[in-house]
Amino acid sequence: MAHRFFTLSIALIFSIGIAAAQATDSLIYAEGNIINAATKEPVTARITYQSLPYGNRMGTLNNNRYSFPLFDNEKYSIVVEAPGFTTAKYMIDPAEANGASKILKDIELTSGAPSNGSKHSVGLVMRLDNVIFQVGRSKINEESYSELDVVVKMMKENATMVIQLEGHTDYLGDAKENLKLSKARVESVKDYIVSKNINKSRVKTKAFGGTQPLSRDDTPESHRLNRRVELRILQN
């Protein structure tokens, strides 16, 4: 009897372990490099992605490669823009994921004038994926400065642009403390931008705490994605 109970216990533990691993690996990721079609060299570009058909999940990267999750098995559009190159537009379908739950797609850019769609339109939301804070604090890590400098450059090139920084935490813990932390973090980001000679009246802030998660999955990766700062263009 004891041997049978032991066997059942091992089987149960094994089943729970498999279920936990499956939950952790439930997200599909789109990944790839941005390269010059002629030279095959990396190109730093502005990469905008959003879920289809409604665009309720959006993000923007400034890099020569991209990686982002596809939530709820939705298709995503991806637009890649770089000075001196023709804008590239693609659709990412989760059905194309490989056995490792990844969609691997390098995007080649061809030389040419960028399309009129390169202007930052009012209402566009950009997720600042590389803005990193110390755990539980509002102090910005130095590795975040390069992405914030891209924002500063964008605002200097568009003298009438007004932005709103929106702070989000995960939904774990005390809701009031999360709201307080998200407010402190966006104020820190604003202080950095204003320190670069951007008028403070052009940088608004709004805090949401953990009320607008990108994912409800109870995994460390999903909680990390929910902790974010987003930039919304109010005027251009």
UniProtKB/TrEMBL annotation:
Pfam families per record: OmpA (PF00691)
Residue ranges occupied by any OmpA-like domain in the UniProt entry: 120-236
Cell location: Cell outer membrane
Gene3D superfamilies linked to this entry: OmpA-like domain
Gene Ontology CC annotations of this record: cell outer membrane
UniProt keyword annotation of Cytoplasm present: no
Domain of life the protein comes from: Bacteria
The protein, known as: OmpA family protein
